[in-house]
Amino acid sequence: xxxxxxxxxxxxxxxxxxxxxxxxxxxxxxxxxxxxxxxxxxxxxxxxxxxxxxxxxxxxxxxxxxxxxxxxxxxxxxxxxxxxxxxxxxxxxxxxxxxxxxxxxxxxxxxxxxxxxxxxxxxxxx
Length: 126
Known about the structure:
Number of helices: 3
Shape: elongated
CATH architecture of the domain at 41-117: Beta Barrel
């Protein structure tokens, strides 16, 4: 009887578990493929490093062209993406005021390592 109840409990736990809560895969079976968004140079996008958080939705960053600029976090990213100092981001410069711009994307740790390994960040002081 006890064996039946424990099996039933395991089945219930497996039913509650969604795809994001699945146990980690065993070593050696991980996928090493990393998909990374790259800046569109024709659309005034470039890599930057967050140097200072200025409160509310403003950050300062050092762009890959060597200039330090002020960037705005748009409303659609404000609550979803949390920035910290030294994060690698993609920014889109304003065409009417190139000293400012918008944050487009924030890279996670594995994505940052991929960019460093493949030489995309060689213009940034890391």
